[in-house]
Specification:
It is a single chain. The chain has two domains: 145 residues, Aspartate Aminotransferase, domain 1 (Alpha-Beta Complex); 255 residues, Type I PLP-dependent aspartate aminotransferase-like (Major domain) (Aspartate Aminotransferase, domain 2, 3-Layer(aba) Sandwich). Strand 8, helix 8 and strand 9 form a beta-alpha-beta unit. The protein has a seven-stranded mixed beta sheet with strand order 4-10-9-8-7-5-6, with helices on both faces. Strands 13-14-17-16 form a four-stranded antiparallel beta sheet, with helices on one face. The chain is 40% helix and 17% strand. It is built from 14 helices and 17 strands. The protein is α/β, with parallel strands linked by helices and 410 residues long.
């Protein structure tokens, strides 16, 4: 346990007011970070400040409040550009989150550039939000959806992927990190192989951005989507990165204010990037706070956070493996701090309820990955996912809590 001392965990925890509470008479242990991370006081304060001091609509107003709101809104776009390593703010589109980002690409790029008989490749590790939009597009356009299989460790079968690739494939859409298993996918290789047959690639970065450094130019990815709420930021806001040439070629996603240059009853001309894809009044306060969330992790040091979270993962994996009848689902060689598990003879929902009675929050169910659960012959799992504010002592409480659950239900 060398790395624990490199972060002041107690100082970090003090920034997250929600952690300082009791649940069912016990100090909260929050292990549902893959679903959403908690928010530091700094992020909460920015949201409050915006509504108390700067609340105004952006871009169109010339008064002081509008100018301040616009300045801070666009400062967040620049922060995201730098965070992703994009070449231009024109390539950063604000969305409501990862799901909308995927749907935007499916509804614009997909409808314009994918035709009947074309193929789309996803993987067996995908969240429903990276399955359903492509199924809907296939139903509408008559294109074909193909799936990269998953091996027993929870890793993608790259040989099978290469066999799926052909000039018929127009898009490959896979996650960077599995929300259910924590598997880190070899996205650089996936992108390289897809480009070899002329296919474009979308990467779902919802689970990756809080754990990994992202460089969209180094990856040469065509589209990258993520959500702020899994990165210590607010809910209801996220971003789509797209290569500029692709975004310029794609039609707008929605019609309305802001995405236009000029409107008449005869014809509408569309706005320049990135505003062409941002119809209507956006979620301004949360966009502004998104920048603060990015800065929070960058100030602590993303590599230091990743190293500490890996320590938590290794410790949890070792300790949970001592519980008789417990099986960890997904043991990929490359993982982030997610442990999904089942206990023989005990339903995952019972585990979740009884842990909550002890003040321990984990996720149970299929984690919006029903096809993946079916691949492993399961209805669901219990999932503990760790963040930089979690501790080794909390993992010990989880292990003790599971032992108590076993005694109660065995």
């Amino acid at each position: 346990m060398i790395l624990t001392d490199t972060l002041d965990i107690q100082k970090i925890r003090a920034d997250f007011p929600i952690l300082d509470q009791e649940i069912n008479g016990r100090k909260l242990v929050y292990f549902d970070n893959a679903a959403t991370t908690q928010k530091p006081q700094q992020v909460i304060d920015v949201i409050t400040h915006y509504y108390q001091h700067d609340n105004a609509n952006i871009h169109r107003g010339i008064h002081t409040l509008a100018e301040r709101a616009t300045r801070d809104f666009e400062a967040s776009r620049e922060a995201i550009r730098a965070f992703l390593g994009a070449s231009s703010i024109e390539e950063i589109i604000f969305t409501s989150g990862t799901t909308q980002g995927i749907n935007l690409v499916a509804s614009t790029f997909g409808r314009k550039f994918i035709q009947a008989g074309d193929e789309i490749i996803i993987s067996g590790l995908e969240h429903h939000s990276n399955i359903v939009p492509w199924q809907m597009l296939c139903e509408e356009k008559g294109c074909i959806l193909k799936v990269i299989p998953v091996n027993d460790l929870g890793e993608l079968d790259l040989e099978a992927y290469q066999q799926l690739l052909s000039e018929k494939v127009k898009l490959v859409s896979v996650n960077h990190v599995s929300n259910s298993l924590g598997t880190i996918n070899p996205v650089a290789e996936i992108i390289r192989l897809a480009h070899g047959v002329g296919a474009k690639v979308l990467i779902d970065g919802a689970q990756a951005t809080s754990h990994l450094n992202i460089d969209v130019q180094a990856l040469d990815v065509d589209f990258y989507v993520f959500s702020a709420h899994k990165l210590y930021g607010p809910t209801g806001i996220g971003a789509l990165y797209g290569k500029k040439a692709l975004l310029e070629a794609m039609p707008p996603y929605m019609g309305g204010g802001e995405m236009i240059k000029e409107v008449s009853f005869e014809k509408t001309t569309y706005n320049d990037l990135p505003y062409k894809f941002e119809a209507g009044t956006p979620n301004i306060a949360d966009v502004v706070a998104m920048k603060t969330a990015l800065e929070y992790t960058q100030n602590i040091g993303r590599e230091r956070i990743a190293a500490y979270e890996d320590e938590l993962l290794q410790y949890a994996t070792a300790q949970l493996s001592t519980i008789e009848g417990l099986r960890i689902v997904g043991q990929a060689a490359q993982k982030v701090s997610v442990v999904s598990f089942v206990i023989e003879g005990i339903h995952h929902q019972d585990i979740g309820v009884l842990l909550d009675n002890q003040g321990i929050a984990v996720r149970t169910g299929h984690h919006c990955t029903q096809p993946l659960m079916k691949r492993f012959g399961l209805l669901g799992t219990s999932r503990a996912s760790f963040a930089m504010y979690n501790t080794l002592e909390e993992i010990d409480r989880l292990v003790a809590g599971l032992q108590r659950v076993k005694k109660m239900l065995s």
